[in-house]
Task: inverse folding
């Protein structure tokens, strides 16, 4: 069967989501503010690693690189999305990070840049970076707008010397994907909350060697379609989109039907990404409590799905889909989780969001009074969480420090399970 006609879209259903609950396997420990932030002058949130084409973490002359959405730390955290600027940071040990600076000086598309991914090609001139991002807002509009397009910047290169690592070059920016209105909702079709078409994620399928881009989107549901028991639920129409590069050229992609959707369940399946282990595909997204349809109890959490090939019949991990969430007394302490493979375990990084804050009836924390927003926003990387994985079950097995991102060759300290085994001896 050709992958263009792979049949019905797998669904995250209300039945699955009705089982969502916190338990010992999925609740992260409470996060305390770190002694040191990534950068005192900056608030940072969505973060991603520079990766090689095969998805492994790039290491350039002994340094790994992360990119993050940033805003000045004296700006109100609730306003940060409106000014988001992508900066890079690098580290030799995965624990201490140096701020590199802004990735782009000018020429970016959109009024501001939202999350994406970055692929490193060491064979390009000087080590070339393919930088996928969300161009948010119309370039020439005077007011802030919420249009989202998937953009690519090429032409940037990585240089290293004794003093550090530098990413520069003359970037060429272009829009590579916009919603088609058929598989993927356009802004004008959106019935509820603002539509989504963002967060591009480069992915090379290890089984087929084919080149893809995943992204966050919505499935168009015309008024009166009768998709759900209640027509209001139809506005909750998140999907995980995918585009294919038939030639393998990382600059040319064509839309394909979504990998999964959550019509009647949830409006935002954010920052989709895949980890492939022994031929099993683990698909992860982040989502918010307030983007679940009425009648469902969700959480700000990392969710995951599993299938036995890229276009497989994805089933939610742990039956309901939740993999990692925040404690009940700190429900917004972390967000925007990113999972990567570390051999025996999966490692999960995220950002330290609003801490010491528990008003479930006010889940949009940007509505907090300004001084409370300032006092309670982490704005730096959260502690890395270690997950055990067994088939379609996941469980927390430990944590590392804020922003500690080990490479696969770097060993981890004993996990909670190892320690329990030892105590049991
Ligand atoms: C997730 C997210 C992304 C988006 C960014 C904007 O935290 O909503 O989907 O790219 O934040 O700041």
Result:
């Amino acid at each position: 069967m050709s992958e263009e006609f792979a049949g019905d879209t797998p669904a995250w259903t209300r039945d699955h989501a009705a089982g969502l609950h916190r338990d010992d396997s999925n609740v992260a420990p409470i996060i305390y503010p770190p002694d040191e932030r990534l950068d005192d002058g900056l608030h940072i949130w969505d973060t991603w690693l520079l990766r090689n084409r095969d998805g492994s973490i790039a290491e350039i002359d002994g340094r790994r690189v992360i990119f993050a959405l940033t805003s000045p730390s004296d700006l109100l955290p609730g306003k940060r999305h409106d000014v988001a600027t992508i900066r890079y940071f690098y580290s030799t040990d995965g624990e201490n990070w140096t701020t590199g600076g802004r990735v782009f000086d000018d020429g970016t598309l959109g009024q501001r840049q939202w999350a994406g991914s970055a692929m490193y090609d060491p064979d390009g001139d000087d080590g070339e970076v393919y930088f996928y991002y969300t161009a948010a807002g119309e370039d020439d509009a005077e007011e802030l707008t919420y249009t989202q397009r998937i953009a690519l910047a090429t032409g940037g290169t990585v240089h290293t010397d004794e003093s550090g690592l530098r990413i520069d070059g003359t970037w060429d920016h272009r829009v590579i994907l916009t919603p088609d209105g058929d598989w993927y909702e356009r802004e004008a079709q959106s019935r509820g909350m603002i539509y989504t078409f963002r967060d591009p994620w480069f992915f090379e399928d290890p089984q087929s060697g084919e080149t893809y881009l995943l992204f966050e989107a919505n499935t168009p549901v015309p008024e009166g379609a009768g998709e759900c028991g209640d027509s209001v639920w139809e506005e909750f129409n998140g999907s995980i989109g995918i585009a294919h590069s038939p030639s393998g050229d990382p600059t040319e992609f064509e839309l394909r039907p979504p990998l999964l959707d959550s019509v009647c369940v949830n409006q935002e399946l954010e920052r989709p990404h895949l980890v492939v282990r022994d031929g099993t595909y683990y698909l992860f997204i982040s989502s918010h409590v307030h983007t679940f349809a009425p009648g469902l109890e969700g959480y700000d959490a990392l969710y995951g799905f599993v299938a036995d090939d890229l276009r497989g019949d994805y089933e939610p991990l742990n039956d309901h889909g939740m993999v990692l969430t925040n404690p009940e007394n700190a429900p917004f302490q972390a967000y925007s989780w990113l999972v990567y493979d570390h051999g025996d375990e999966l490692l999960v990084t995220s950002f330290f969001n609003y801490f010491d804050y528990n008003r479930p009836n006010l889940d949009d924390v940007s509505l907090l009074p300004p001084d409370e927003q300032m006092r309670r926003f982490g704005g730096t990387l959260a502690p890395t969480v270690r997950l055990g994985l067994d088939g379609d079950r996941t469980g927390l097995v430990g944590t590392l420090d804020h922003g500690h991102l080990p490479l696969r060759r770097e060993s981890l300290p004993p996990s909670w399970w190892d320690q329990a085994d030892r105590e049991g001896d």
